[in-house]
């Protein structure tokens, strides 16, 4: 039974955090869309100030950098967690292998920011 909970925590924490973050974002955007629809149905003028006030904003300037750094830090935390598991010499390599997925995605986002997004910031 204890092994089940260990596996659940190891493999369930990251997906649960991602799900909760995306679910919250979806709910807040759906609420904002309903507000704008209500304004349109009641023949109210929808100005750019209203659109910005309800949360429809363009992509943040350094979103790729921020997301990449979060993924790399999460990967390093998962690796540290694997290294801290006592009594199992294979745990470090197994959990380290699992941590490679967010690490490489994070590195790809950092490279994307370095080669693409950063150039767009200087040109505008």
TrEMBL record:
Any single Pfam family the record assigns to this protein: DUF6249
Domain of life: Bacteria
Keyword terms: Membrane, Transmembrane, Transmembrane helix
Domain DUF6249: 7-115
Membrane spanning stretches: 6-22, 67-85, 91-116
UniProt xrefs under InterPro entries: DUF6249
Protein name: DUF6249 domain-containing protein
